[in-house]
Prior knowledge:
The complex is a heterodimer.
Chain A: E1 6-15, E2 18-28, E3 33-37, H1 44-51, E4 59-64, H2 71-74, E5 77-80, H3 92-102, H4 107-120, H5 136-148, E6 154-158, H6 166-181, E7 185-190, H7 193-199, E8 202-207, E9 210-216, H8 217-224, E10 228-233, E11 245-248, E12 252-256, H9 263-273, E13 277-283, H10 287-301
Parallel strand pairs in A: 3-7, 3-8, 5-6, 6-7
Antiparallel strand pairs in A: 1-2, 1-4, 8-9, 10-12, 10-13, 11-12
Helix pairs in contact in A: 3-4, 3-5
Chain B: H1 3-20, H2 23-47, E1 66-70, H3 76-82, E2 85-86, H4 90-98, E3 104-108, H5 112-115, E4 119-122, H6 132-147, H7 153-160, E5 168-170, E6 176-178, H8 182-219, H9 222-227, H10 232-267, H11 279-306, H12 310-323, H13 326-329, H14 331-336, H15 341-348, H16 353-362, H17 369-399, H18 407-416
Parallel strand pairs in B: 1-2, 1-3
Antiparallel strand pairs in B: 3-4, 5-6
Helix pairs in contact in B: 1-10, 2-10, 3-6, 6-7, 8-10, 8-11, 8-12, 8-16, 10-11, 10-17, 11-12, 11-16, 11-17, 15-16, 17-18
Amino acid sequence: xxxxxxxxxxxxxxxxxxxxxxxxxxxxxxxxxxxxxxxxxxxxxxxxxxxxxxxxxxxxxxxxxxxxxxxxxxxxxxxxxxxxxxxxxxxxxxxxxxxxxxxxxxxxxxxxxxxxxxxxxxxxxxxxxxxxxxxxxxxxxxxxxxxxxxxxxxxxxxxxxxxxxxxxxxxxxxxxxxxxxxxxxxxxxxxxxxxxxxxxxxxxxxxxxxxxxxxxxxxxxxxxxxxxxxxxxxxxxxxxxxxxxxxxxxxxxxxxxxxxxxxxxxxxxxxxxxxxxxxxxxxxxxxxxxxxxxxxxxxxxx
Amino acid sequence: xxxxxxxxxxxxxxxxxxxxxxxxxxxxxxxxxxxxxxxxxxxxxxxxxxxxxxxxxxxxxxxxxxxxxxxxxxxxxxxxxxxxxxxxxxxxxxxxxxxxxxxxxxxxxxxxxxxxxxxxxxxxxxxxxxxxxxxxxxxxxxxxxxxxxxxxxxxxxxxxxxxxxxxxxxxxxxxxxxxxxxxxxxxxxxxxxxxxxxxxxxxxxxxxxxxxxxxxxxxxxxxxxxxxxxxxxxxxxxxxxxxxxxxxxxxxxxxxxxxxxxxxxxxxxxxxxxxxxxxxxxxxxxxxxxxxxxxxxxxxxxxxxxxxxxxxxxxxxxxxxxxxxxxxxxxxxxxxxxxxxxxxxxxxxxxxxxxxxxxxxxxxxxxxxxxxxxxxxxxxxxxxxxxxxxxxxxxxxxxxxxxxxxxxxxxxxxxxxx
Lengths: 302, 418
């Protein structure tokens, strides 16, 4: 799509008899944080590799900054692979500096940037250690430093938060937001829905290589409709006494939506009963609910 | 610096730094230097005592450690004068031997003149006695004793040393030339041979680990980051140049160590004396090392790129390590017949030429300068061809991620690997 940072059209990749990616299309807009979701083995990494021209699709096209991925444009991309892939026997600082130089930074700039970022992620004291002396989380943070060292216009992160403790997750999310504010576009893959709900404006969901959803996250949730209504009130109207409901802490009652039960009907029942209502909230489905529902439906169909 | 040359330079400097710091690299470099230094002292000690041979039968010292019993009463004079210890009879001689005052006892029985039989007693190790110097000395002394006062002393001297050969080389055109002095001949054999072995050793030390490292890198996630930053040609060229430079730096240390130690070692060996290595030979050695490292490194990178897994890479790496050693296995044949078909083939096939040329020169092979240059240019050209192929294979192998390693998949990937 015109103006997209990354546009993927009809991407298909077959490994032997298995279609790892099947006619997948989506695009990532400049400056957004885009979530690329899917269960394990759904084709996320294969799609990312094709987007970065690491492997080639059997059919379909990839457009990066408006043209086919080439080295010149790929240098504007920061990439964090699914598994940390730093050379185990090399020193952390040397590795960051080396890969930053390959992305176009001068020796001096790479050195300064590496030190600055290692300090920022708490690895400065470990900068002279060999990579294999780091913990799994530290390796992931070092790999993240490699991905952002050259201030890329597009960051593609494959499962960036895996193996990180909550502090490092928070730190990485903060740094990602800083990059976004500085104008970078960010796309990350994950199967942890909370991260996506917190960070992303739009998402694509794939399962078994097929695209199931691609839209604004808020829109997707709206499209699903109201999942339930939570009411904090002094009692329950007689009219709703037979309806399916759940008692939540704090005197909150949650009504599940059905064919006949709508938020409007619940609201009207409470209004008619004269019961004092302290809170009335329409609950949209969580991304986890949508994920499970969509993936399960797709697998049933398959 | 722009584009590919910048990428190549960055990869070159990174690979160079990494390999120069490798513990194995430092150890293998220094071990050879240590062996050469030890050889300066050990080889002359093993070959001889550092003095020119002389005296009876080439054995001057050591005669006092030999004893005799002369039942014929014909040779006591000459044997005693030569310094051998005399015993009255066999029993006394054996007592002296058992007491460790002598190492060897020779008994000339009274029928010696008719039988030629001499009894030799000694505490030798192994199945058979090994005392050629002692036996030669006794033989010479007996000859001297038998001829004394019978013939002219000059004839005695000729009987003892009837021929001292002086050889000349006759070329195809009939030109006669003298052979080089012993030092030069030994040096001419030894120096290229030592460097052929060092080249084979250097290549085998580097190639095996290189195959595995390329294979591991190809399989790792790091390569995904690197291929989005540099072209496969830059990656391969950077690696190739760095590893060639690393190998040559190692070779340079060995060459300097050899240049310093081998003349010292030969100078301490009796009858050889000092010698110098010609500038032409140095040029050939350096040419063989540069092209040899370039080609074998390229080959190792290719094999590393083509190996389906790091496990296969380990076994394939062993085969690459052997390539540089092939001419050394056949060194006996090449040195014996330096102009034979095997010598010619091994000195022209690019993969064996660098060490093949050195072994052939060691054998006194007659390779003209243009032939050597042609062979080494062939090695360099083959290096570039292998580099180009390995670049394509490396890219194809990355394109094949997630796919099984079949010839069909490989062919498809090779076609797409631009």
